[in-house]
Amino acid sequence: MTVLARIAAIEKFVVVGNTYLAFSDWPVWPPQLRELACSERRIGPEEMNRKEGNLLKRRTMWLAMMLALVLVVAACSSDSDDDTTTTAASGETTETTVAAATETTVAAATETTVASSGEAGSIWVLLPDSASSPRWETDDRRFFDEAFTEAGIDFTIVNAEGDAQTQQSQAEAAINDGASVIILASLDTGSGAAIIDAAKAEGVAVLEYDRFNTGSSGGAVYVSFDNVAVGAKMAEVLTPAIDALGDVPGVVMLNGGEEDNNAFLFRDGYNATVEEKVAAGEWALVDDQFVPGWGGGGEGVGIMDGILVASDNGVDAVFAANDNLAQQTITSLLAAGLDPTTIPISGQDATAAGMQNVVLGLQTMTVYKPIEAEAKIAAAVALNLRDGGDGSTGVTVPGFEFTVIGIDSATGKPAALGGDGIVPYIALVPIGVTVDNITDTVIADGFRTVAEICEGDAAETDWCADNS
Questions:
Q1: What domains lie within the chain, and their CATH numbers?
Q2: Which of 157, 223, 353, 437 is deepest in the core (most CB within 10 A)?
Q3: Mean pLDDT within 392-396
Q4: Are 291 and 304 a contacting pair, CB within 8 Å?
C-alpha cells in the first residue's frame, strides 16, 4: 500500500494554519498548504466539525496522533521527492519535529476529545427492502422520520431494496458520516452480523431493529416484538378454527426466510401448538417450509403450488408467517380451485392488503405489531445511545409499554439478561386481529383507516358497510 493510500485509510485530519484538511485529500491540497504542512508538521483536532470529531473519537487518540504525525512526514517526504528536493533534510526534520509534536499535541488532543465528547453524531436508519413487506416504507420510515424530526437531530433513512451489498455500502456511509448510532433492519443474519462488527470496531453503536443477527458479537440493544409470542398468537387464534374443521385437518407451516432469525422465532411460537396437536393425533402436518426472502419475489406461490400438488390438495389450514405469504397462499389455493374462505390462514403485519383479505374472509387473522410503538421506542433507545446511555435503562416512551429481557447473540433465542453474548432485548407485545376487532385495534390506533381497507372488492363486504 502506498503512503498516500495508508493516509487515506487512516481517515484523520491535519491542521494547516486555520484550515482542517483530510489526509485522503493530500494529492489535491493547494501547493502552498502542502508546503506549510510539511514545514510545520502539525496535527490538531481542536474544534473540528461534528463528523471529524466523531471519527477521531472512535479511535485510540494517542496512537492515532503518533501514527498521523509519522504519516504526514512520510507524505511530505514523498512530496519532496516529487519536487526533486533532497530527503536528507526531511529526515532531519522528522527526528526533531515528531518528538516535539508528540509531547505537545497528544495531550492537547486528549483534552479536546473530552471537551467535545458531548457532540453526538447523526443517527442512520438502514431499512431492508419494500418487497418482503410494505411496512418498511409506509410505516417504519414515517415513524422514524417523525421521532427524529421532533428530536431535532441529524438523521438519515435509507433502504437497501433487497441488496445486501447496498446495505453494506450504506453502513459504510453511515460510519464515514460520523454516525453515533446505526439502526439496522438487516436483510440476512450474515450481512447484518458483518455490519454490526464493522460498526462496533469504529465505535458506532448498533441498534438491531426488528430482525436479530445471529453470529455477530451482538449489537448494543435489540428492539422488536416478542417474536415467539407473535407465532403463539397465530396459533391461539387459528386453533379453534382448525379444530372446528373436524376429522384430522392437514396443516402447513409456511415460514419466513431462513436468512431472518425472526422466521425461526415465529415458527417456534406456532410450532409448539402444531407439535402438540400432531402428537395427539388431532392434526396432520402436511409440510413445513421456509420461503426465501419472505416471498419478496413471489416464491411462496411456487412453494404452495408444490405442496398442494404433493398432497393432492390435502391442505386444510396454513400458518403463513406474514400477510405477504398469506396472499401468496391465497393465490395458490385459488389457482388450485380451492376456496380460501374455508381454510384458516394466519398472517402478520396488519398491512392494508392483509386487512382487506381479513374483511373478505380470505385470511382468518393477522398479527398487529404496533409499528409506531416499535419505531418510536427504537428511536428513543437510539437517542439514549447517542447521548451515552446503554439503551436499555432509563428509556421511556409515553403511551407505549415494553419489557426488557435478553437474547443470545449466538443462537438468537430469548435468554435471561446478563452474561457473555447476551444482548438486551426490548420486547413489545403483539396483538391478534380478526374481523371482529379491527375497529378496536388498527383503526383505533390510527394504524389503518377504513378508507384504505375498504377499497376494491373489500368495499362490498359487511364490515365496510358497517364501518364506512
A1: 3-116 (no CATH), 123-224+371-427 (3.40.50.2300), 227-369+433-467 (3.40.50.2300)
A2: 223
A3: 83
A4: no
